[in-house]
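G., before I forget:
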Amino acid sequence: MRHHLILRVVTKFLAGTIMLFALYVQFHGDYSPGGGFQAGVIMAVAFILYGIVFSVEHVQRVFPPWLVHKLVAVGVLLYAGTGVYSLFAGYAYLDYTALSPQHPEHGQHYGILLVEAGVGITVTAVMVAIYYAFVGRSPLISDEEW
Amino acid sequence: MTVLTFVDLTLFVMMVITALAVVRTRSLFATAMLSGVFSLLSALLFITLDAVDVAFTEAAVGAGISTVLLLGTLALTSRYERPNAHSPALPLLVVVVTGAVLVYGTLDMPSFGDPTAPVLTHVAPDYLQRSPHEIGVPNVVTAILASYRGYDTLGETAVVFVAGIGVLALLSGLRRRRRKDEGEDA
């Protein structure tokens, strides 16, 4: 889409805004609708939009496939690791009291934050990885073919 | 008729029109776009039901990512649906029978907004009462999702993980790498 000037300018402006919104949805999920799943998808959309309007090579320079593939697992490990940590601290699996034994309520906040971050990372990485997998199969079709 | 019923009816009618358009049209590009429209309409329907979190997910996943993935698939295949070779009588019969069974199933369900519905008398009031002082998070959906039902969400994340791995194994360059290895062996 090399000749779509308006699309390119708007995308440059939008990609950052979308990421900011994703972070808001991620970390404000305790207070408003949203959470890891939605934030992950929105974050992935920022990369996919950039990839569609510019090119996959451009977006892969920012977010290389090897990093995406690692992050797919990092999110799940962060989630499961939170549970393992509470096991070692002497509580039940995924009992967030372990994160702050003096203030169980604070522990819940930390736990939810960590777990939602894990969900967000995995969802972002999986969506971007699926997009890369689809786009990497064949050269993109030209505008005239639509 | 209240405003809300009017909004609900409008949304349902628009969804039915979109669904019919998806069935009728031959252009797969239009189908992908219309399915995004369908998701957006159902997200609006969830908002009128006060399920904002679900609406958010539907709008982001259904209307956003699914459409992009459908378009990505479209780039790998043809852009027009082939005309149907066999008669639509049998599929139509199956759809009508399934639909009738589903409608029959809803007859036993509690009516919309019924305060004595099982879902509202079982664990829901318990969560609503306990979460302000146990979790202290204003959004009860997040409290239930990440804390009370932490195992479920871990399972869901694992499902997303496995789905991603599956797509990577099927579509990405893993096969190419193996062929290269075989070439080195030979």
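Chain B is about 75% helix and 0% strand. Chain B has a mean pLDDT of 84.

More on Monday.
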